[in-house]
Amino acid sequence: MNKYLVVVEETETGYSSYSPDIPGCVAAGATQKEVERTMREAIEFHLEGMKCDGGRSPAPHSYSMYCEVPA
After folding, report:
1. Considering the domain boundaries, does residue 63 fall inside one?
2. Structural domain for 18, as ranges
3. Nearest residue to 26 (alpha-carbon basis) of 10, 12, 11, 46
4. β-bridge partners, 22
5. Which CATH number belongs to the domain containing residue 24 in this structure?
6. Is 44 within a domain?
7. pLDDT by 10s per residue, the chain, length 71
8. Which DSSP helix (H) or strand (E) runs through 10?
9. How many domains does the chain have?
10. C-alpha 16: how far from chain center
11. CB-hemisphere CA count at 13 Å for 14?
12. Dihedral of CA 34/36/14/58: which sign?
């Protein structure tokens, strides 16, 4: 089982998400709960497609951090 970083951003109409570890894999939703669900489904679907094409799941390589700077 792999653990992928997912970035979620608030938009004017809800939320969007992507994973820097899985190029081209994105999802959106009206609520945080919805975007989390749709992104999990998108990742599973994307990885299954890669597997069907003879590829492998990419190794996770991204991480997150916060950087404090003066306002």
Report:
1. no
2. 7-52
3. 46
4. none
5. 3.30.160.250
6. yes
7. 899 999 999 999 999 999 999 999 999 999 999 999 999 999 999 999 999 999 899 999 999 999 999 98
8. strand 7-10
9. 1
10. 9
11. 14
12. negative
Q: What's the rounded Cα separation, in Å, for the pair 28 and 57? A: 22
- What CA–CA distance (Å, rounded) separates 58 from 16? 22
Rounded to whole angstroms, the Cα distance separating 48 from 41 reads 11
User: What is the spatial distance between Cα 25 and Cα 18, in angstroms, rounded to a whole number?
Assistant: 6
**CA pseudo-torsion sign 45, 46, 52, 57:** negative
The type of residue at 56 is R
Torsions phi, psi for 65 (to 5 deg)? -160, 160
3-state secondary structure of 2: coil
